[in-house]
Automatic annotation (TrEMBL):
GO molecular function: acyltransferase activity, transferring groups other than amino-acyl groups
Transmembrane domains' residue ranges: none
Keyword set, alphabetical order: Transferase
PANTHER family in the record: GNAT FAMILY, PUTATIVE (AFU_ORTHOLOGUE AFUA_3G00765)-RELATED-RELATED, N-ACETYLTRANSFERASE DOMAIN-CONTAINING PROTEIN
Protein name: N-acetyltransferase
InterPro entries: Acyl_CoA_acyltransferase, GNAT_dom, N-acetyltransferase
Domain of life: Bacteria
Domain N-acetyltransferase, residue spans: 9-172
Signal peptide (UniProt feature, chain positions): none
Protein backbone atom coordinates (compact mmCIF):
# COMPACT_ATOMS: atom_id res chain seq x y z
CA UNK A 1 0.00 0.00 0.00
CA UNK A 2 1.20 3.46 -0.84
CA UNK A 3 0.22 7.00 0.01
CA UNK A 4 -2.08 8.24 -2.77
CA UNK A 5 -2.36 11.91 -3.61
CA UNK A 6 -5.27 13.54 -5.44
CA UNK A 7 -6.15 17.18 -6.00
CA UNK A 8 -7.98 17.48 -2.66
CA UNK A 9 -7.12 14.30 -0.74
CA UNK A 10 -4.21 12.41 0.71
CA UNK A 11 -5.00 8.74 1.20
CA UNK A 12 -2.62 6.99 3.60
CA UNK A 13 -2.65 3.42 4.86
CA UNK A 14 -4.70 3.51 8.04
CA UNK A 15 -3.09 3.36 11.47
CA UNK A 16 -4.26 3.02 15.07
CA UNK A 17 -4.33 6.82 15.46
CA UNK A 18 -7.21 6.88 12.94
CA UNK A 19 -9.53 4.76 15.09
CA UNK A 20 -11.16 7.70 16.88
CA UNK A 21 -12.09 9.27 13.54
CA UNK A 22 -13.39 5.93 12.23
CA UNK A 23 -15.59 5.50 15.31
CA UNK A 24 -16.96 9.05 14.89
CA UNK A 25 -18.19 8.04 11.41
CA UNK A 26 -20.00 5.06 12.90
CA UNK A 27 -21.69 7.31 15.46
CA UNK A 28 -23.36 9.44 12.78
CA UNK A 29 -26.80 7.98 12.03
CA UNK A 30 -26.84 9.49 8.52
CA UNK A 31 -23.48 7.95 7.66
CA UNK A 32 -24.80 4.58 8.88
CA UNK A 33 -28.23 4.90 7.22
CA UNK A 34 -27.58 2.41 4.43
CA UNK A 35 -25.27 0.20 6.47
CA UNK A 36 -26.97 -0.18 9.82
CA UNK A 37 -30.40 1.34 9.28
CA UNK A 38 -29.33 4.64 10.78
CA UNK A 39 -28.34 3.01 14.05
CA UNK A 40 -25.05 4.18 15.43
CA UNK A 41 -22.45 1.54 16.18
CA UNK A 42 -21.52 0.76 19.77
CA UNK A 43 -18.29 -1.16 19.39
CA UNK A 44 -18.69 -2.66 22.86
CA UNK A 45 -21.94 -4.32 21.75
CA UNK A 46 -21.44 -4.67 18.00
CA UNK A 47 -22.93 -7.65 16.22
CA UNK A 48 -20.01 -9.96 15.40
CA UNK A 49 -21.86 -10.89 12.19
CA UNK A 50 -22.18 -7.31 10.95
CA UNK A 51 -21.76 -7.18 7.20
CA UNK A 52 -20.07 -3.79 7.06
CA UNK A 53 -16.46 -2.91 7.73
CA UNK A 54 -15.62 -1.17 11.00
CA UNK A 55 -11.92 -0.40 10.71
CA UNK A 56 -9.88 0.15 13.83
CA UNK A 57 -6.70 1.30 12.11
CA UNK A 58 -4.95 -2.04 11.80
CA UNK A 59 -6.61 -3.34 8.64
CA UNK A 60 -4.66 -3.86 5.46
CA UNK A 61 -6.19 -2.36 2.32
CA UNK A 62 -7.85 0.55 4.20
CA UNK A 63 -6.70 4.08 3.46
CA UNK A 64 -7.48 7.08 5.65
CA UNK A 65 -8.54 10.13 3.63
CA UNK A 66 -7.51 13.57 4.80
CA UNK A 67 -7.71 16.93 3.08
CA UNK A 68 -4.40 17.68 1.42
CA UNK A 69 -4.43 21.33 2.44
CA UNK A 70 -5.03 21.04 6.18
CA UNK A 71 -4.96 17.34 7.10
CA UNK A 72 -8.62 17.32 8.20
CA UNK A 73 -10.12 13.84 8.38
CA UNK A 74 -12.59 13.15 5.55
CA UNK A 75 -13.21 9.41 5.83
CA UNK A 76 -11.77 6.13 4.65
CA UNK A 77 -11.57 4.07 1.47
CA UNK A 78 -10.75 0.42 1.03
CA UNK A 79 -9.87 -1.88 -1.81
CA UNK A 80 -10.36 -5.28 -0.26
CA UNK A 81 -8.92 -8.24 -2.19
CA UNK A 82 -11.43 -11.01 -2.79
CA UNK A 83 -8.85 -12.96 -4.83
CA UNK A 84 -5.59 -12.28 -6.66
CA UNK A 85 -7.52 -10.65 -9.52
CA UNK A 86 -10.66 -9.24 -7.83
CA UNK A 87 -11.06 -6.50 -5.22
CA UNK A 88 -14.06 -4.80 -3.62
CA UNK A 89 -14.11 -1.02 -3.32
CA UNK A 90 -15.63 0.59 -0.25
CA UNK A 91 -15.73 4.05 1.29
CA UNK A 92 -17.25 6.06 4.10
CA UNK A 93 -17.06 9.84 4.43
CA UNK A 94 -18.08 12.36 7.06
CA UNK A 95 -21.44 13.91 6.30
CA UNK A 96 -19.94 17.41 6.13
CA UNK A 97 -17.76 16.22 3.23
CA UNK A 98 -20.61 14.77 1.15
CA UNK A 99 -21.57 16.36 -2.16
CA UNK A 100 -18.12 17.78 -2.91
CA UNK A 101 -16.85 15.08 -5.28
CA UNK A 102 -14.46 13.70 -2.67
CA UNK A 103 -15.92 10.19 -2.71
CA UNK A 104 -15.44 9.99 -6.48
CA UNK A 105 -11.96 11.49 -6.22
CA UNK A 106 -10.81 9.02 -3.57
CA UNK A 107 -12.51 6.03 -5.16
CA UNK A 108 -10.98 6.86 -8.52
CA UNK A 109 -7.51 7.00 -6.95
CA UNK A 110 -8.00 3.54 -5.44
CA UNK A 111 -9.27 2.10 -8.72
CA UNK A 112 -6.19 3.51 -10.45
CA UNK A 113 -3.95 1.99 -7.78
CA UNK A 114 -5.82 -1.31 -7.98
CA UNK A 115 -5.30 -1.73 -11.70
CA UNK A 116 -1.82 -0.21 -11.93
CA UNK A 117 -0.20 -1.50 -8.75
CA UNK A 118 -2.56 -3.98 -7.11
CA UNK A 119 -2.70 -6.18 -10.21
CA UNK A 120 -6.47 -6.59 -10.17
CA UNK A 121 -8.40 -7.45 -13.31
CA UNK A 122 -11.80 -6.52 -11.88
CA UNK A 123 -13.02 -4.19 -9.13
CA UNK A 124 -16.54 -4.41 -7.73
CA UNK A 125 -18.59 -2.31 -5.33
CA UNK A 126 -22.00 -2.81 -3.73
CA UNK A 127 -24.63 -0.67 -2.07
CA UNK A 128 -28.33 -0.75 -1.31
CA UNK A 129 -30.34 -0.15 -4.48
CA UNK A 130 -31.90 2.94 -2.89
CA UNK A 131 -28.54 4.55 -2.07
CA UNK A 132 -28.49 6.86 -5.08
CA UNK A 133 -25.51 8.92 -3.89
CA UNK A 134 -23.24 5.89 -3.65
CA UNK A 135 -24.48 4.58 -6.99
CA UNK A 136 -23.59 7.94 -8.59
CA UNK A 137 -20.07 7.69 -7.20
CA UNK A 138 -19.67 4.24 -8.73
CA UNK A 139 -20.96 5.45 -12.08
CA UNK A 140 -18.77 8.59 -12.04
CA UNK A 141 -15.62 6.49 -11.69
CA UNK A 142 -16.61 4.32 -14.66
CA UNK A 143 -18.20 1.35 -12.94
CA UNK A 144 -21.21 -0.22 -14.59
CA UNK A 145 -24.25 -1.85 -13.06
CA UNK A 146 -23.86 -5.64 -13.00
CA UNK A 147 -26.83 -7.01 -11.02
CA UNK A 148 -29.23 -6.65 -8.12
CA UNK A 149 -29.35 -9.28 -5.40
CA UNK A 150 -31.99 -9.70 -2.71
CA UNK A 151 -30.96 -8.87 0.82
CA UNK A 152 -32.02 -10.37 4.09
CA UNK A 153 -31.60 -8.78 7.47
CA UNK A 154 -32.90 -9.33 10.95
CA UNK A 155 -33.02 -5.54 11.31
CA UNK A 156 -34.96 -4.32 8.29
CA UNK A 157 -33.55 -1.12 6.85
CA UNK A 158 -35.95 1.06 4.85
CA UNK A 159 -35.34 0.28 1.19
CA UNK A 160 -33.74 -3.11 1.92
CA UNK A 161 -36.60 -4.79 0.05
CA UNK A 162 -35.20 -3.35 -3.20
CA UNK A 163 -32.00 -5.35 -2.79
CA UNK A 164 -28.34 -4.64 -3.14
CA UNK A 165 -26.79 -3.49 -6.40
CA UNK A 166 -23.42 -4.61 -7.68
CA UNK A 167 -21.25 -2.46 -9.91
CA UNK A 168 -18.02 -3.48 -11.56
CA UNK A 169 -15.13 -2.23 -13.63
CA UNK A 170 -12.71 -4.42 -15.52
CA UNK A 171 -9.14 -3.54 -16.36
CA UNK A 172 -10.01 -3.46 -20.07
CA UNK A 173 -13.00 -1.21 -19.37
CA UNK A 174 -10.79 1.09 -17.32
CA UNK A 175 -8.09 1.34 -19.98
CA UNK A 176 -10.67 1.62 -22.77
CA UNK A 177 -9.22 -1.32 -24.68
Amino acid sequence: MAVLQTKHLTLSPCCRDDCTDFIALERDPEVMRFLNGGHTVDRDRVDPNATFLMPSGTEPYVWTARRTGNGAFVGWFCLWPESDTLAELGYRLRRMDWGQGLASEGASALVHWGFETGGYDRIVATTMAVNQASRRVMEKIGMTYARTTPTESSDPIPGREHGEVWYELTRSGWTGE
